[in-house]
Design a protein that fits this description.
The chain has 306 residues and is an alpha/beta fold. The protein contains ten helices and 14 strands. It has a six-stranded mixed beta sheet, with helices on both faces. The protein has a four-stranded antiparallel beta sheet with strand order 2-1-4-5, with helices on one face. Strands 12-13-11-14 form a four-stranded antiparallel beta sheet, covered by helices on one side.
Length: 306
């Protein structure tokens, strides 16, 4: 199946010489949720802005639904919805009028029932006749999503959509994202809330200093790069590791009452049995044992800092 968005050798260098994107290649599947992770200034917003036609690329190409974003810009822009980072809304306009105008901009026929459903999905229906200036910051964030959906896009970009909003609103937004995905909409989001990417995304892309470091299925990424740790609490604190344990990948806590053993859970031989036997033979008593696994956040930090 042809990807809904295809990015080939995309680069962007600004007038001052700053290179925001460096030879980015990425295919986005129809109906998937792709999370783009990266620190501030990594190039996430520049990438989205080029695809949406806001910024011109220095080189490379992008197609949306098989249409080039430059030569077929009218078609591609009608296929895309964008929720920007910044709250850019008119103060004195009424919400309902804003929705109708946003839909009309793309040449869509009026559809009051569709707009009503969008506003109800975002808990905005009772605000439809109110001025935008009267809405809270969280409500304005919902309005940006509603506007992006007004013309029924097949690809939706969410650029830090939950920045600065409360937990309840964040959950409402992600519930809506799941419903949109189920209806066939492809969703690309950037976020600093890595736990959300871990919970909702199908694939994860990590971008840093304009380079796309990797893109992979979320579970496959955590499978390949994830590690597990065995946390062993000792009955009696020790000051140094016994010589029989010194060669093992062990870390002794500052208090001396906890050992941390890092291992690859996908290896057939984890070494745990030998470790526990060596601890007993060293005369140490075990109080408790727990395991932890590497989170997506830890994988992200290790890749960006390398």
């Amino acid at each position: 199946m042809q990807p809904i968005v295809s990015i080939s050798n995309l680069s962007k260098t600004y007038a001052g010489g700053y290179q925001a994107l460096k030879q980015v290649n990425l295919d986005i599947k129809q109906g998937e949720i792709l999370a783009l992770l990266g620190p501030n200034g990594a190039g996430k917003t520049t990438l989205i802005s080029i695809i949406c036609g806001i910024v011109n690329a220095s080189s490379g190409s992008v197609t949306v639904g098989g249409h080039d974003i430059v030569s077929d810009y009218r078609i591609t822009r009608s296929m895309i919805g964008l929720v920007p980072q910044e709250l850019t809304l008119g103060a004195f306009e009424k919400l309902w009028n804003t929705m109708r105008f946003s839909r009309g901009l793309f040449g869509k026929k009026p559809d009051a029932n569709y707009l009503e459903q969008v506003l109800k999905d975002l808990s905005l229906w009772d605000k439809r006749n109110g001025m935008l200036m009267s809405l809270s910051g969280g409500m304005k964030r919902r309005v940006l999503i509603a506007k992006a959906l007004a013309h029924e896009p097949v690809v939706l970009f969410l650029d830090e959509p939950t920045a600065g909003v409360d937990v309840e609103l964040r959950k409402d937004m992600w519930a809506l994202v799941q419903r949109l995905r189920e209806s066939g909409v492809t969703i690309i989001l950037t976020t600093h809330y890595i736990e959300e990417a871990e919970a909702i995304a199908d694939r994860v892309g990590i971008i840093n200093e304009g380079e796309l470091l990797l893109v992979d299925d979320k579970q496959a990424l955590m499978h390949k790069l994830g590690k597990r740790q065995l946390i062993i609490e000792l009955e009696t604190a020790i000051t140094n590791l016994p010589k029989t344990l010194a060669s093992m990948p062990l870390e002794l806590s500052a208090e001396g009452d906890q050992l941390t053993y890092t291992y690859d859970p996908h290896n057939t031989q984890t070494g745990i049995d030998g470790l526990l036997l060596a601890i007993r033979e060293a005369g140490m008593l075990i109080k408790d044992v727990n395991t932890t696994k590497t989170s997506l956040e830890e994988i992200f930090v290790s890749l960006v800092n390398n």
